[in-house]
Amino acid sequence: MRMTARPENVHQTRLLRLLRDEGARSRAELGDVVHLSRSKLAVELDRLVELGLVEPAGLAASRGGRRSNIVRLSRHLRLIGIDIGATSIDVAVTDGGLEILGHVSMPCNVREGPDVVLDHALDLVGKLRGQGLIDEIHGAGIGVPGPVSFREGVPVVPPIMPGWDRFPVREVISQKLGCPVLVDNDVNLMALGEVHAGLARSAEDFLLVKIGTGVGCGIVVDGRIYRGMSGSAGDIGHIRVDDNGPTCVCGNTGCLEAYFSGAALARDALAAARSGRSAFFAQRLEQAGALTALDVADAVAAGDPVGVRMVREGGRRVGQVLAGLISFFNPGLVVIGGGVAGLGHVLLAEIRSVVYRRSPPLATGNLPIVLSELGDTAGVLGATRLISDHIFSAT
Amino acid sequence: MRMTARPENVHQTRLLRLLRDEGARSRAELGDVVHLSRSKLAVELDRLVELGLVEPAGLAASRGGRRSNIVRLSRHLRLIGIDIGATSIDVAVTDGGLEILGHVSMPCNVREGPDVVLDHALDLVGKLRGQGLIDEIHGAGIGVPGPVSFREGVPVVPPIMPGWDRFPVREVISQKLGCPVLVDNDVNLMALGEVHAGLARSAEDFLLVKIGTGVGCGIVVDGRIYRGMSGSAGDIGHIRVDDNGPTCVCGNTGCLEAYFSGAALARDALAAARSGRSAFFAQRLEQAGALTALDVADAVAAGDPVGVRMVREGGRRVGQVLAGLISFFNPGLVVIGGGVAGLGHVLLAEIRSVVYRRSPPLATGNLPIVLSELGDTAGVLGATRLISDHIFSAT
DNA sequence: CGGCTTTGTCTTCTAAGAGGAGAAAGTTTG
DNA sequence: CAAACTTTCTCCTCTTAGAAGACAAAGCCG
Question: Which alpha helices (DSSP H) does chain A contain, by range?
Answer without folding.
Answer: 10-22, 27-34, 38-51, 114-130, 169-177, 186-197, 256-259, 262-275, 279-288, 293-302, 305-329, 344-358, 361-364, 377-391
